[in-house]
Amino acid sequence: MLAPPTEEEHEYGGKDPALWHQQKHGCGGFCSKMLDYYCSHRGKLQYVIWLHKNCDEECSTQAMDNAATNGHLDVVKWLHENRYEGCTTAAMDGAASNNHREMVNWLHENRGEGCTTAAMDNAASNGHVDMLLWLSQNRHEGCTTAAMDGAAKNGHGRVLDWLHRNRSEGCTSAAYVGAASNDHINIVRWLQQYRREGCTSAAIDGAAANGRLEMIKWLHTNFTKGFRKTTMDVTASNGHLIVVKWLHENRTEGCTTAAMDRAAANGHASVVRWLHENRNEGCTAAAMDGAAGEGFMDAVKWLLMNRSEGCSTAAMIAAASNGHLNVVRYVHINLSQPATNKAIAAAAEYGHLPVVQYLHKHRSEVCSAQAILQARKNKHDEVVEFLMQHEDCRQASCVGDNLDNSTLELQTESVNSSAVGSANGGLSSTQEGQSSPTYAFSHDELEARLRAEVEASIREEKEATIRAEVEANFQTKLQEMRASIRAEIQADVERQMHEQIEAQLLANLDDL
């Protein structure tokens, strides 16, 4: 897969290298990157030749790989004759994927890298039947189940038929999922008629999640199993009210609280109201948390007036993190929230000064060193300046300045003529003639509290990330296992039926 060009490569990509070479030569391999970039774009061969003659930096195999993928045969031939870096299998794989027949044939006859199964897989996914025929006649790598799966997903019926008749790899249940999700009803019918992998719940959920009502109706008519509560959940999450209503009227599985939770978080107010009026599952605090985090003020107000679940501290934290001051203000005034300084820390981290100012003025939580640390790290100078005007924040900053600078990335600063951090880590006077303020904690105690706070925050974030990854992997493996077991059982049943019928026919022959 081609790496996207950097902003700097875009800037220099349209310029003759003679204009920038002297300035950029030797700057972190920039000339090498530009060689690769020029090879990827039609009409830049003259720039490639100029760099070849005037610059001693090398290019990489990406030069020919990218040129081949994009069909620039003149560039590929020139690189082949004048450079030594060569290419990889990605050259033919990419050319086949994009149906550059002449390029694939030239690489096959003049280069020795060959290709991988990705050549046929991607050609199939993109609907290139003629390329499949050429690869099958001239190459030996073959394909995988990804070929038919990709063709089904993208609605390429001719490719499916060719693969079914000429290849033995077959497909997986992902073929149904892709076709159903993308509303290729003719492909789903073909799979039902010619393949035995079977339709899965994932295929039905995929169609529902994308609002494919006619597909859902067809699946309902032709498959007795596969619908589940998550079908309505994902439909509601994506705001497809018509499909939600149809499932409500024609299926019995219902939904879970996730339906309203996710609909609220995604701003689908009409779906939230309909579920409230017509279903009994309700929602959880996650509904308001999600709506608050995305700034959907109307949804937050509606949930407060019509539901009793309320929200958690996540509502204030998420709203502050995304700079939704109106939501932060509304939640503070209308909902009882446990004390947490994570909200102001989140607002400071992303530079939302109005939110930081509001929270500092109206909330009772002590400003944390984490707020100043993140604001400094992300160069939100206005936020740092505001926080450092207040004693509680200066105290937190003082402790942070005395910790290992290489770890916390804090620097001693002066804000609004307030001296922060002396050579021994104490606070100097904040105004001329005033003595240094005293604090209730010793330096060691403050340092210990700060370290505990930072560690707890990191642990919480890591735990949430790991939990989400594990759950996603589990669901994926579970679906794969179900599909595999179903396929094995179907194959076993088919084999047994063949044996029974064959035995019966032999018995009938004996009777004759």
From TrEMBL:
<feature type="region of interest" description="Disordered">
    <location>
        <begin position="414"/>
        <end position="438"/>
    </location>
</feature>
<protein>
    <submittedName>
        <fullName>Uncharacterized protein</fullName>
    </submittedName>
</protein>
<dbReference type="Pfam" id="PF12796">
    <property type="entry name" value="Ank_2"/>
</dbReference>
<dbReference type="Pfam" id="PF13637">
    <property type="entry name" value="Ank_4"/>
</dbReference>
<dbReference type="InterPro" id="IPR002110">
    <property type="entry name" value="Ankyrin_rpt"/>
</dbReference>
<dbReference type="InterPro" id="IPR052050">
    <property type="entry name" value="SecEffector_AnkRepeat"/>
</dbReference>
<dbReference type="InterPro" id="IPR036770">
    <property type="entry name" value="Ankyrin_rpt-contain_sf"/>
</dbReference>
